[in-house]
Amino acid sequence: MTIDIMMPFYGRFDHLREAVGSVLAQTDPDWRLVVIDDVYPDPAPGAWVAAIDDPRVHYRRNAVNLGVGGNFRECVRLIEHERAVLMGCDDRMHTGYVATVRELVAAHPGAAIVQPGVDVIDAEGAVHEPLADRVKGFIRFGGTGPREFSGEKLATSLLTGNWAYFPSVLWRAEDLRRYGFREGFEVVQDLALMLDIVFDGGGMLLDDTVCFSYRRHAASVSAVTGPDGAKFAEERALFAEAAARAKAAGWPRAARAARAHLTSRLNALSELPAALRAHDPAGRKALLRHVVSR
């Protein structure tokens, strides 16, 4: 089973070199890498990828800038195999990532979503654990070894707080094509996709073997859209939709978690100091609205 590694690119060249290098270093050779350049202004990163002498590495440059969601949709269009990961161009695979997820799928072929173990690195590549990731660790399901979750239990947990690390997740290609990345969800597209799969009966396989490094830094989309409140407007819309779907499905705990969206409210509250420092009244108003919204 070949793993398609789709890597949308718009960012730092040094981070891209690390990300691509981590794929090339995989101990399991059964992978295919496609870097999709969303018209990054500097041609040097694309030229570097295109010059890599490995038939498994492919470079595509979009004709026009598609934006975050649009480039994810382009990634899905280019998938060729049954399983795929949409890896961040600033993240790093550990050398055993492909081997680990292939073993997990072989043992649990019915899992729609495979979430392996992840550590978090900063802009310079040092491992750290900021508050957001400590909260993720607290909310995430406990237990040891590979374990599967589905239905209301999984939906309730993800709606309480999205503890998954999207760029590390291995997906079924058929699910990516079927549900895709919806218009209007540029920042919370990962949670929207997971909820679509879960509400339709798909499950998640969770494992603790750390084989991926997720980079959390100030230039990420979620970080940039935090103080101005933009991502929270998306989250509020998604939670309202999820509450209605959970109610229709007869999942009262999931519906309550969606309506409460407690960790999302606390996250908005934590962004208020930045909005105050930026003298951004619109951002401050948007954040306060999310904190008190029903």
Task: Looking at this protein, list some descriptive labels.
transferase, globular, single chain, Spore Coat Polysaccharide Biosynthesis Protein SpsA, Chain A, EC 2.4.-.-, glycosyltransferase activity, 294 residues, glycosyltransferase, nine-stranded mixed β-sheet, Nucleotide-diphossugar_trans
Please characterize this protein's 3D structure.
This protein is 47% helix and 18% strand. The longest helix has 20 residues, at 230-249. The mean pLDDT is 90. The chain has helices at residues 13-24, 44-50, 67-77, 97-107, 131-139, 151-160, 173-179, 189-199, 221-224, 230-249, 252-260, 262-277, 281-292, and strands at 3-9, 31-37, 57-61, 83-86, 92-93, 113-121, 147-149, 170-172, 204-215. Strands 1, 2, 3, 4, 5, 6, 7, 8 and 9 form a nine-stranded mixed sheet that branches. It is built from 13 helices and nine strands. By secondary structure, it is an alpha/beta fold. It folds into two domains: 3-223, Alpha-Beta Complex (Spore Coat Polysaccharide Biosynthesis Protein SpsA, Chain A); 225-292.
Low-pLDDT sequence parts: none
- Predict the CATH topology of the largest domain: Spore Coat Polysaccharide Biosynthesis Protein SpsA, Chain A
Number of strands: 9
Shape: globular
Please report the distance between the alpha carbons of the first and last residues. 46 Å
CATH class of the largest domain: Alpha Beta
Main sheet, how many strands, which sense, barrel? Answer: 9 strands, mixed
What Rg do the Cα atoms give? 19 Å
Which range does the strand content fall in? Answer: 15-25%
The average pLDDT value, as a whole number, equals 90
Helix content: 40-55%
* Architecture per CATH nomenclature, i.e. the level-2 architecture of the largest domain: Alpha-Beta Complex
The total count of helices amounts to: 13
**Which structural category fits the helices and strands?**
alpha/beta
Number of domains: 2
| Oligomer category | single chain
Supply the CATH superfamily name of the largest domain: Spore Coat Polysaccharide Biosynthesis Protein SpsA, Chain A
Order of helices and strands: EHEHEHEEHEHEHEHHEHHHHH
Pfam family, one: Glycos_transf_2
Organism: Herbiconiux oxytropis
InterPro entries: Glyco_trans_2-like, Glycosyltransf_2, Nucleotide-diphossugar_trans
Protein name: Glycosyltransferase
